[in-house]
Amino acid sequence: CHTSGMLTPNGKEYAQKIPREELTHLILKLLQAWKEPLSHFNQHIEHHQELPDDSLSKAKQISNMVHELKTGVEKVTEKMQSMGIISNSLNGMASSEGTGLSITNEANMMSDSDFIHCFRRDSNKVQSYLKVLKCRIMPENSC
């Protein structure tokens, strides 16, 4: 996986030990790391005439969801900053330069099944980290 070099906590219990700002930054880094590979993947599958239309549609839908999720996390980050929950140190950190990840051809050269496996792995991480962050910010949710 092209994101394997990113240091990420394995499991919810380790994610709970990371400060909110670092966890938010990690979520943004993971989402940003998938922006370009998903775009290439969409282009790749569009050229496969044998794929059913619903597969093409699903791939585009996933790509759009990642973009929307990243935008949503950025908005939540701004709100957290304005409320003083986290500092403004995350500004500009969602760009590909701020992630510290250079997107290589590794993601483009993976087989479709490996690509989907890696995407699913990172999606599960983001989901888990968002749950931890939500529980820290809004403890009234009985997490």
From TrEMBL:
Coiled coil: none annotated. It comes from the Eukaryota. GO terms for molecular function: hormone activity. Keywords: Hormone, Secreted. PANTHER family: PROLACTIN LIKE (PTHR11417:SF33), SOMATOTROPIN,PROLACTIN (PTHR11417). It comes from Onychorhynchus coronatus (Royal flycatcher). One of its GO terms (biological process) is positive regulation of receptor signaling pathway via JAK-STAT. It holds the Pfam family Hormone_1. Belongs to the somatotropin/prolactin family. InterPro entries: 4_helix_cytokine-like_core, Somatotropin/Prolactin, Somatotropin_CS. This is PRL protein. GO terms for cellular component: extracellular space. The lineage of its organism: Eukaryota, Metazoa, Chordata, Craniata, Vertebrata. The keyword Cell membrane does not apply. It is found in: Secreted. The keyword Secreted applies.
